[in-house]
Amino acid sequence: MKKAITFTLLCFGFIGYSQSKLDNYIQIGLKSNEIIKQHNFDINKSMYALQEARSLFYPTVSLNANYTKADGGRTIDIPIGDMLNPVYSTLNQITNSNAFPSLQNQSVLINPDNFYDAKIHTTMPLLNYEIIYNKRIKSQQTSLQKIELEIYQRELVKEIKTAYYKYLQSIEGINIYRDALALVKENQRVNQSLFKNDKINRTAVLRSDNEVIRIEANLETAKQVSNTAKTYFNFLINQKLDSEIEIDSDKESLPSALVLENTSGREELSKLTMAKDINENVSKLTQSYWYPKLSGFADFGFQDFDFEVNKQSRYYFAGAALEWTIFSGNKNKYKLKQVQEDSKKISSQTDNVKQQLLLQFQVTRNNLISALEQFNADKNQKAAAQKYNEDITKLYKEGQAIYIELLDAQNQWVNAQLNTNISLYNSWIAYAELERVNATFTLK
C-alpha cells in the first residue's frame, strides 16, 4: 500500500520544473544552431528546385539569329533557258522584235550565300505528364526536408535540456562540496584545538587534514566538470563557450511520469509517409511513359539575302509537335518494377519503425519511473543522514563519540546530498528523453 501511494505521488503530486529560462535557451538554440542553419539551406534549395519545376509549365522564348556565307557544293539545276527560249523565239518572230531575250539555264547553290535569318523562337509544353509529376515530387521533397529539420530540432531540444540539467547538477555538486569543505575545515580547527589541549591524539588531526585535502580535490574536480558542462551547453546554442548560464531557482520540483503514449505523432513516421507518397508519384512518373507529349512552337522573324529588310523579309512559322514513344525495350517496365519494390520496402520500414518507437517509449518511460523512485529513496536517505550527522556532531562535541564516528556521519551526509542531487537531475534528463521519444515538445 505504501509503494502504491508513493507511485501515485510520483505520478501526480510533483509540479513541473520551472522552464522559463530553459525555454529561452531552447529558442536561442533553435534559431542559432549551425546544423539547423544548414538544414534551412537545404530547405531553401528544395524550394528553388520546386520553383524550377513550376517554371517548366511556362513558355520558353529565345532570340535566334544566324548568317551564312557559302560557295561551291551541291547545286540545283533549273533549265529555264531550255524551257522558255523556244517560246521567246516564237514570240519575237510573231512580234517581229527582240522583246524577249534568250535566257541561260540556272544553277542554284543548296547552301544559301549571304543569307541571314533572325527570329524569336517560342516553345511551350501543352501536354506533358512528366512535368506534372516532377512538380509534385519536388513539392514533396521540400516537405521532406522540413520534416528532417523538425527531427533534428527535437533532438537538439533534448540535447539542450540534458546539457542544462547536467550543468545544474554540477553547480549543485559544487555547492555541496563547498559546504562539506567548510564542515571539514571546522573539524580541522576543532581537532587542532583539542590536540593542543591534550584532549585527543595526533591521529585525529592528521585524519582531519586529509579530509580537507580530499574535499578540496573533489571540489576542484566538480568545478572542472561544471566548466565542461557549461562549454558544451553554450556550444549547443551557438554562444560563446564561456558565456554565463542563468539558473532556474526551482531546485526540487519533479516531472510527472504520467505521460500518455503519442509515438504516432513522431516525425520519423511522417517522413516515411512522405517517402511513400513520393514513391507513388515516381511510379506515376514512370507510367507516364505511355502517354503522349504535345508541345507548341512559333517563330517570328526576318530572313533575306544581303541583309535586306522589307515586307517580303518578314515571316512567321508555327506548329505543334507530338511525341509518343511506342517501344523502348521494356526499359520503363523494369523501372516500374524497381519502384514497386521500393514501395514494399517503405511499408516494411514503417511497420518496423512503429514497433521500435513503441518499445522506445516503454523503455524510456520505465527509466523515468525508476529515476523518480531512486530520487524518492535518496531523498529519504538524505533526511536520515542529516539527522544522523546532527546527532553524532552533538555527541562528539560533548565527548561521547570518537572522531571516526563523526567522520562517517559527515561522509554519509555529503554522499546523501550528492546522490539526491544526481537522482533529481537524472529524473529531469529521463523526462527530456521521454519527451523526445513521445514528440510532445511544441516546436515554435
UniProtKB/TrEMBL annotation:
<comment type="similarity">
    <text>Belongs to the outer membrane factor (OMF) (TC 1.B.17) family.</text>
</comment>
<dbReference type="GO" id="GO:0015288">
    <property type="term" value="F:porin activity"/>
</dbReference>
<protein>
    <submittedName>
        <fullName>Outer membrane protein TolC</fullName>
    </submittedName>
</protein>
<keyword id="KW-1134">Transmembrane beta strand</keyword>
<keyword id="KW-0812">Transmembrane</keyword>
<dbReference type="Pfam" id="PF02321">
    <property type="entry name" value="OEP"/>
</dbReference>
<dbReference type="GO" id="GO:0015562">
    <property type="term" value="F:efflux transmembrane transporter activity"/>
</dbReference>
<keyword id="KW-0998">Cell outer membrane</keyword>
<keyword id="KW-0472">Membrane</keyword>
<keyword id="KW-0813">Transport</keyword>
<dbReference type="InterPro" id="IPR051906">
    <property type="entry name" value="TolC-like"/>
</dbReference>
<dbReference type="InterPro" id="IPR003423">
    <property type="entry name" value="OMP_efflux"/>
</dbReference>
<dbReference type="GO" id="GO:0009279">
    <property type="term" value="C:cell outer membrane"/>
</dbReference>
<dbReference type="GO" id="GO:1990281">
    <property type="term" value="C:efflux pump complex"/>
</dbReference>
